[in-house]
Hints:
The protein is α+β, with helices and mostly antiparallel strands. It has 3 helices and 5 strands, in the order H-E-H-E-E-H-E-E.
Amino acid sequence: MYTVDAFWLLVGFVGLLLHFWYVVTILTYQMKADTSRLKQLIRQAEESRQDHVQAILREDGPLRSGSLVKLHRKCGKPTCHCATDGTGHPTTYLSYKQDGKTRMLYVPATAEPQVTQEAQRYRQLRRHRASLAKLARQSLKLVDQLQQALLSTEPIMRDTGKGSGVTRRLPPRRNWGCHW
């Protein structure tokens, strides 16, 4: 009878050692590898975000919302070539939105290069803004994943204080609806 009890005691002890080995080696290794990669991805996202912020801060000229559109219009003169061949005269307009409606503003030929440059810089600024928004969402998602990876799931053990080296689990926290 004594040998069977000793056998089961040995089996329990070996099982306990295997459990601690698993926790220390496997879980710790997995957590550190995962958190290291997540931290690296967060760092990369923040560096990329900083590049976009710097590009936005370098912008100093006037911006113009909208796109340049070339339209061919007939002038209305019966003797003009546009009345006979139907091609029309090329004119440039700035197409933009105002109060949810598309508006068209005539752009003279002399102002066309300047308006084109202002519209391109506006689109570039909007692209940087969209990238910042995307990177912010990505960074928050990565931080949430890092939080989950670092979150401890091990029960809290408390020393019984009797000098025996025996620990016991803390009782589960009860929420009685009080928030103070």
